[in-house]
Amino acid sequence: MKFPQIHSLQEIANLLQCEFIGDENFPVLGMNEIHVVEKGDIVFVDHPKYYDKALNSAATIVLINKKVACPEGKALLISDDPFRDFNKLTQHFKPFQHASVSIAATAQIGEGTMIQPNVFIGNQVVIGKNCLIHANVCIYDHTVIGDNVIIHAGTILGADAFYYKKRETGFDQLVSGGRVVIENNVGIGALCTIDKGVTGDTTIGEGTKIDNQVHVGHDTVIGKKCLIASQTGIAGCVIIEDEVTLWGQVGTTSGITIGTKAVILGQTGVTKSVAGGKSYFGTPIQESREKLKQLANIKKIPDILTKLQ
To answer: What's the pTM?
Structure first.
């Protein structure tokens, strides 16, 4: 998430009321999670296990809960609670805007797009040309939808990321300030939920078709011309490359990559990254031919035991 203008390290430290290490005029351009950070971004880290990863990332400002050696060309913001202060930044630069009408005055809707009754379209939403948005669809603020997109009834675009920090008092939510981006010629079935990014974009690539009752987690990127069948659950920060097929009730863990033209058979648990151009099945996931061969061999066990008696 980029800020509307460049801020100095001193300005951000004043906002958070925290110490800093580095030039007070060090430029701060935005904030992001570790997997999408760029030069000028703030990243937060609050556990020693991840200090090195954050300090050596592309981010040039690290919001951290301990004074450590500052890498050359970077700056530190010292906070007693980086998670809380990262939320404070999101709430400051992208505050929640209350809606008072079903279609926000700031929404942009392209020529030829049809909006059915009881649709909610939030602030700063952009919808392209010749789309069809069916009844009771909810499109949260800042969502971007391309041309020729069809979204069926009851689907929700832009709900918060499922991202929490456990504390003694319960769970604190990481505030979501990202977007959902739907590219051209995408089809989305009924009762789907696509969560926005925490600071970046959850993206559905051009020509992809999604069946009913599919969930897509925060910051996931789905490529072009993918097919995703009903009741599939895709976790956050997943990369699904082009022309992948996920059949019904597939589930994934977070942070993995599914390679181009991979086929994931129904009810598979995608527990790790898999290469493209192959078919997979089972939990834990294996190439389908090998997995089905194993299942066939298991059926032979009673006959083998009988012969041994």
So the answer is: 0.92
